[in-house]
Amino acid sequence: xxxSVPTKDRxxxxxxxxxxxxxxxxxxxxxxxxxxxxxxxxxxxxLFRADTAQKMANAALKTLTENAADFTEFARALELPGHEKxxxxxxxxxxxxxxxxxxxxxxxxxxxxxLAYATYNKVIHKLRTEALEDFRIDFEDGFGNRSWEEEDATxxxxxxxxxxxxxxxxxxxxxGIRIKxxxxxxxxxxxxxxxxxxxxxxxxxxxxxxxxxxW
Length: 215
Hints:
The protein is of the alpha/beta class and 215 residues long. It folds into 2 domains: 38-51 and 133-214, no CATH class; 68-129, no CATH class. The chain is built from 8 helices and 4 strands, in the order H-E-H-H-H-H-H-E-H-E-H-E. The protein has helices at 7-27, 52-67, 71-78, 90-102, 105-108, 114-130, 148-168, 187-204; strands spanning 41-44, 134-138, 174-178, 212-214. Strands 1-2-3-4 form a 4-stranded parallel sheet, with no helix packed on it. Helix 2 packs antiparallel against helix 6 and helix 3 packs across helix 6. It starts with 6 loop residues before the first helix and ends with a strand. 19% of the residues are buried.
């Protein structure tokens, strides 16, 4: 097998890379054992409000219930085990739901459709309690290039909405902002937005405890 990089050059490159990798690993040894969100939603900074997560949760719950009003429709849509044996008449479905509700989790596993029933109810519960796990207030692609005055004002507004959400306990468990990259042409803008946002948030929440953040 032919190679283009001489052995001595390859060794030098790998040694340099090794030093950089070790320096990085010393700062970031790997993922923390703490909880990690299963998904992240990015939304334009100008659209973010303290109740954004709740509005998205309500929309998701409405979409689900309009398309699968009960666990039998849910089972058929996803072709879950036993879906072909589940009733289709409203009266029969209501009777089955009432029966499942009275059974213990262990007893339900002996019944056709138990997986669909359990999964559907867990999805409903998740959408009602914590549909959105992580939100990024986006000043990059989701916001675009606007005047400095507009981005300054939006950074202030977004921070105040986060403060409002902290007080109302309406924020998702993880939240943060996405600023423009620190490239040569955008570094000043990105740094300015970060500064304005954090300064405003700190002033608006002097004694508050915030959810897990990632700025």
